[in-house]
Amino acid sequence: MDAKKFIDKQVAEIKRTVGQHKAISALSGGVDSSVATILAHRALGPQLKVIFIDDGLMRENEPDEVKAAFAQLGLDLEVIEARAEFFEALKGKIDPEEKRKAFRYAFYKVFGREVIKSQARFLIQGTIAADIIETRGGIKTQHNILEQIGIDTEKGFGFKIIEPLKELFKHDVRQVGRELGLPEVIFQRMPFPGPALATRIIGEVTPERVELVRKATRIVEEELAPLRPFQAFAVLMNDMATGLAEGKRKFGQIIIIRSVESQDALTAQPTPVPWDVLTKLARRITSEVPSVVRVAYEITSKPPATIEYI
Ligand code: XMP
User: Fold this and answer.
1) Tens of pLDDT, residues 211-233
2) What is the pLDDT of residue 128?
3) CA distance from start to end of the chain
4) Ligand 1 site, CB within 6 A
5) pTM of the model
6) What value does the mean pLDDT of the chain take?
7) pLDDT tens for residues 81-101?
8) DSSP-assigned letters across all residues of 18-57
9) The domain that contains 286 carries what CATH number?
10) Which of 100, 127, 128, 134 maximizes ligand 1 atoms within 8 Å of its Cβ, making it the mutation to test the pocket?
11) Residue 127, in any domain of the structure
12) Host domain of residue 278
């Protein structure tokens, strides 16, 4: 792929579609939405408003880090605090697709409000080809694929969606990011799903359970960073198990570590993590997240497993 040509074509296309109107970009700080946002900013300048929804499901320090990284690029983000709204939407939901649906509606409701407030007509979204393939293939309903799940944003929320990356795969998106001058910390980031840590919790998503998986995720990312996996994270199980603390029985949480190698996220293989790294992870997670009594490493490829747990 010729990244330069792609950028020129998309910039012209975005300019033509948006015309004199305003657009909003939904930035999550992940690779795809970052690249889509910078592309749109190049096309629209001050006609683009960039918002970052703090849904309470991000990784440690993520809202501040994303804000700082984009400030360096001369882009001012507006952070929309919507944590309570997302937790309310997810309350009591156990089924994976129910959780995805609840997240999706909360997401577009918050966005819809912001679009109306700022009188924007367009929403720029970082959907990529793999998101569309997975949703159409009935694997799972990615949060941002609306045509398949019957959300008409124009009728329901008053805006049209522009998806400049929808024909690209992850490695092309990274190439475009590099060509656009994004810092490596952004375009080389691990993929992180739109519904964020909610995809890494089996059972109910509550603030306490998110905090637990957030801490474990930071440890997994720190310890596995030298291996540069495609994606690595922690998952919180719904069942509890028996362990020991200070010589006494302790009933606690189970964390699964998932780390995979992949090109395009359509297939993936487990990362061959050295044994000493795995045992260190188990030690760190059980001591730094004391409610966890067991840590396991997941060894399933995709297929038959998917990368995320919901
Ligand atoms: P799965 O779990 O389907 O994930 O093997 C494939 C890739 O997609 C990411 N993923 C998502 N990304 N919204 C996103 O933006 C979603 O709803 C979503 N679900 C999964 C996942 O992290 C992996 O990189």
Assistant:
1) 999 999 999 999 999 999 999 99
2) 93
3) 32
4) 131, 134, 139-140, 142-144, 191, 193-195, 199, 231, 265, 302, 306-308
5) 0.89
6) 92
7) 999 999 999 999 999 999 999
8) HTTS-EEEE--SSHHHHHHHHHHHHHHGGGEEEEEEE-S-
9) 3.30.300.10
10) 134
11) yes
12) 201-297
